[in-house]
Specification:
Elements: H1 2-7, H2 9-28, H3 32-41, H4 44-71, H5 78-92, H6 96-110, H7 118-123, H8 125-138, H9 144-147, H10 153-172, H11 178-181, H12 189-216, H13 223-236, H14 245-254, H15 259-305
Helix pairs in contact: 3-15, 4-5, 4-12, 4-15, 5-6, 5-15, 8-10, 8-12, 12-13, 12-15, 13-14, 14-15
Length: 310
């Protein structure tokens, strides 16, 4: 099954996305007028603000990645790393794992000598994931009422995540394997503190984006509701359902407040997320082209300064 999934990842994602979209259409078909009204009720200011918050989140997470790679011994220039990070976002439109693989492949291809090995780069993802998982566990109580979960489950989740984080810290202090060097950022408080700060910025931007869009379509949502939707979104990105993730997560958490409005907020979350992400990718492409032209101009200048042979 694992080999089959690796071979047909794109096909599985396409089929899953179509199936999830079909389910959402079936749920919303009787409320399509309300859905259209909710979609059109979000102002252009709200949409631009949501796209900008998505861009802030991507930049903050890219900086967190830069901190991890720098601690692991990488000497990649920040601009080069940001360009590779933008490619990861493009890949994540299909699947979260595809996004990670695309980001690592882009960095290794652009800076093979300045970036650590693949195993170290994979390990460098875990400190970021550990911080995000800890934040999710701390706020998982927001899922208890919407999903009907037992009250003690968030406590168990937090204990498990803290245990895993302690295990990562223990591995980070070990030496001798390239894999452990990817966890080097956890060896000191300064690096770990900077990492936590940028992950917090990224998470808060995403929560604010959810809250802004929910309020923009008329849903009386709180910040806790926006946090619960974000946790659901992150969980659903592990499934091959593609762009339907935003609407599915919103309906799952807040469907009792009106399926049409919360689904519209989820769709707008996906759209503004794509706009923000593609803006990041567009900057990366333009910056790469500008850097290439600048290098070519410098090379021509050096050639012109060489003395001509008699």
């Amino acid at each position: 099954m694992h080999r089959f999934g690796d071979r047909h990842r794109a096909s599985i994602t396409i089929v899953g996305a179509i199936a999830a979209a079909a389910v959402l259409v079936a749920i919303l078909w009787g409320k399509r007028d309300e859905f259209s009204t909710a979609l059109s009720s979000a102002s252009i200011t709200v949409l631009l603000g949501a796209a900008a918050l998505q861009l802030v989140a991507l930049l903050a997470r890219s900086e967190a990645w830069h901190i991890c790679i720098e601690a692991a011994g990488g000497t990649v220039a920040r601009r080069v790393l940001y360009r590779a990070s933008s490619m990861g976002y493009v890949g994540s439109l299909l699947n979260a794992q595809v996004g990670t693989a695309a980001r690592i492949a882009a960095l290794r291809r652009s800076s093979p000598d300045e970036s650590p090995g693949v195993s170290t780069l994979i390990a460098a993802e875990f400190p970021i994931l550990a911080v995000e998982a800890t934040l999710a566990a701390l706020t998982s109580f927001t899922l208890v009422v919407p999903l009907g979960l037992p009250w003690w489950l968030p406590i168990v989740c937090l204990a498990v995540i803290l245990g895993l984080s302690a295990g990562l810290r223990h591995l980070a202090l070990r030496e001798g394997r390239l894999l452990w060097s990817g966890l080097a950022v956890l060896r000191n408080l300064r690096g770990g503190g900077r990492l936590v700060a940028f992950v917090l910025v990224a998470v808060f931007a995403q929560v604010s984006r959810n809250w802004l869009l929910l309020r923009g379509v008329g849903v009386d949502a709180s910040l806790l509701d926006a946090i619960a939707v974000l946790i659901a979104m992150v969980a659903l990105t592990q499934l091959p359902i593609g762009p339907s993730t935003g609407a599915a997560a919103a309906v799952l958490i807040l469907g009792h407040d009106g399926v049409a409005a919360v689904a519209a907020a989820g769709v707008l979350s996906t759209v503004t997320g794509i706009v923000g992400g593609l803006s990041f990718a567009a900057w990366a492409g333009a910056d790469r082209l500008w850097s290439h032209r600048r290098a070519q101009a410098a090379l021509r200048g050096r050639r012109d300064q060489l003395p001509e042979k008699e």
